[in-house]
Amino acid sequence: MYWNQFSESKLLSIEQKILSVLKSAYKTKFVEIKSELGSEERIWTISLNTESPNTPLVLLHGFAAGIGFWVKNLDTLSQNRPVYAMDLLGFGRSSRPEFSNDSLEAEKQMVDSIETWRQQMKLDKFILLGHSFGGYLATSYAISYPERVKHLILADPWGFGDKAELPPRNPPLWVKIIGIVFYPFTNLNPLASVRALGPFGPWLIQKLRGDITNKFDDIFDDKSIIPNYIYHCNAQNPTGETAFHHMIQGFGWAKNPMIHRVKNLKNEISITMMYGSNTWMHNLAEKVKEIRPDCSVDVQIIENAGHHIYADQYDQFNEVIVNASNTVDGRTSVVRILTAKNGSHNLKEDEVIESENEEEVRIESS
């Protein structure tokens, strides 16, 4: 219990440092939900530009991540519309309930928590974007609640491919190392070894996951911020990680591949599928187009990007998202890419105020 409280406090402190580079005004808060698990839970949420009348954009992060991973995207994406991002239930600062051991039931519990969150946020229809595992959940949500999704954006989504139908993937070196060295000792929870190292966990993440941590070097002088953020996102009771394990077979394949379920999406839900040109995921966008001939499926390849396209080439990523979102609203896209190069990540005099209900408000300096 003490360790969970310490890690949660540490995670909040690190996240505040990450979000301090944002230029846009934002609010963060816990959204209280009554989960399908029968318990009262909290989903940690960041909101930007909520007064805009345009269609909201909702972001779902990937496995073992949190809202801080969107720090290179939030400014640009929220220029002309409300943007919301959450820590998925079981991850980050959100509650850690015990999920079902059944893969489809655990998936449903996560998807239903997103719907309950939507109700609490009083959103009607929105654009839904999911990266990796978030793309898998976003697709499942759109199948279950099609009346809420105006457009579905899948950024290098996990869980689409069927292991029996595809050739073996060639994952990066860090994945192979984890698979060979750590997997037999983790009781099938991929990050158990990292947690077991305690204060040395961030060091291991820095060594093994430079593919993520180095992507933020241009905005953070302190190179320990991202490894510590990843560590403390996953140092607490790993219920979301365990639920994810119940959804996989072998080394990272989905038990219930989305490629066999995407046909259940309503035709009126248009899709944008994005892949990095150097991703180690199977690009199944053309297969999705084949399965859904009467549905709009736009395919975008982000050049010189791997799986983490939102950080690898964030200017290209942001432009694709803004253009797709503006198309939904019938708007002409004029994208001003906010990056560290034009000053959005060099603010010196911003102030963060924390209120009694744990809501933080960014006040832009004049």
Automatic annotation (TrEMBL):
<keyword id="KW-0808">Transferase</keyword>
<comment type="function">
    <text>Coenzyme A-dependent lysophosphatidic acid acyltransferase that catalyzes the transfer of an acyl group on a lysophosphatidic acid. Functions preferentially with 1-oleoyl-lysophosphatidic acid followed by 1-palmitoyl-lysophosphatidic acid, 1-stearoyl-lysophosphatidic acid and 1-arachidonoyl-lysophosphatidic acid as lipid acceptor. Functions preferentially with arachidonoyl-CoA followed by oleoyl-CoA as acyl group donors. Functions in phosphatidic acid biosynthesis. May regulate the cellular storage of triacylglycerol through activation of the phospholipase PNPLA2.</text>
</comment>
<keyword id="KW-0443">Lipid metabolism</keyword>
<dbReference type="GO" id="GO:0005811">
    <property type="term" value="C:lipid droplet"/>
</dbReference>
<dbReference type="GO" id="GO:0005737">
    <property type="term" value="C:cytoplasm"/>
</dbReference>
<comment type="similarity">
    <text>Belongs to the peptidase S33 family. ABHD4/ABHD5 subfamily.</text>
</comment>
<protein>
    <recommendedName>
        <fullName>1-acylglycerol-3-phosphate O-acyltransferase ABHD5</fullName>
        <ecNumber>2.3.1.51</ecNumber>
    </recommendedName>
</protein>
<dbReference type="GO" id="GO:0006631">
    <property type="term" value="P:fatty acid metabolic process"/>
</dbReference>
<dbReference type="Pfam" id="PF00561">
    <property type="entry name" value="Abhydrolase_1"/>
</dbReference>
<keyword id="KW-0012">Acyltransferase</keyword>
<keyword id="KW-0551">Lipid droplet</keyword>
<keyword id="KW-0444">Lipid biosynthesis</keyword>
<keyword id="KW-0221">Differentiation</keyword>
<keyword id="KW-0963">Cytoplasm</keyword>
<dbReference type="InterPro" id="IPR000073">
    <property type="entry name" value="AB_hydrolase_1"/>
</dbReference>
<dbReference type="GO" id="GO:0003841">
    <property type="term" value="F:1-acylglycerol-3-phosphate O-acyltransferase activity"/>
</dbReference>
<feature type="domain" description="AB hydrolase-1">
    <location>
        <begin position="56"/>
        <end position="160"/>
    </location>
</feature>
<dbReference type="GO" id="GO:0030154">
    <property type="term" value="P:cell differentiation"/>
</dbReference>
<keyword id="KW-0276">Fatty acid metabolism</keyword>
<dbReference type="InterPro" id="IPR029058">
    <property type="entry name" value="AB_hydrolase_fold"/>
</dbReference>
